[in-house]
Structure formats: C-alpha cells, structure tokens
Design a protein that fits this description.
Strand order of the largest sheet: 1-2-3
Oligomer: single chain
Strand content: over 45%
Order of helices and strands: EEEHH
Distance between the termini: 17 Å
Length: 79
C-alpha cells in the first residue's frame, strides 16, 4: 500500500505559464521511503490547503509512479 507521509513546498516561481509551486512528496511503499517531485501550476499563489488538495487529486498517478520506480532500487532514497 502506498502512503503519502508528507508534502513539503520547496519553492514558488513565477513564469510565463503562471505560478509554479514545486513540492516534494514523501511516500512510503513496502517499508521504503521515496521522494517524488510534483509541480502545481496556477494563476495565483495557493494556500497550503489548496496545494495539498491539488496533489491529492493526483494520488492515483503518484501511486502508479511510486510502484514503477520501486522496481528499480536506484531511485530509493531511504532503505
């Protein structure tokens, strides 16, 4: 089972695409921890609550990604 342990906002950048919120998502899967980067684009700066909601909407995508990278141990950040 894939569990999100924490979501941390790394930085906010303004670009031609809008406001870029770069987040680190720490996930636990089969006793190991993984770090997945997520980019959330918006027209304005989001609150922490709005940012978490945007990432949780991608939960299925994040879970599938972690399952794929878990097959290759070189992406594992903590054993």
């Amino acid at each position: 089972m894939v569990k999100i342990k924490s979501i941390k906002l790394d930085r906010i950048e303004h670009s031609g695409y809008g406001v870029e919120h770069w987040c680190r998502v720490y996930v636990r899967y089969r006793g190991k921890f993984y770090k997945v980067w997520q980019l959330v684009l918006s027209d304005e700066e989001l609150t922490t609550y709005q940012l978490v909601l945007a990432i949780l909407k991608r939960l299925r995508e994040i879970k599938n990604h972690v399952k794929e990278i878990s097959k290759d141990n070189k992406f594992n950040i903590l054993s």
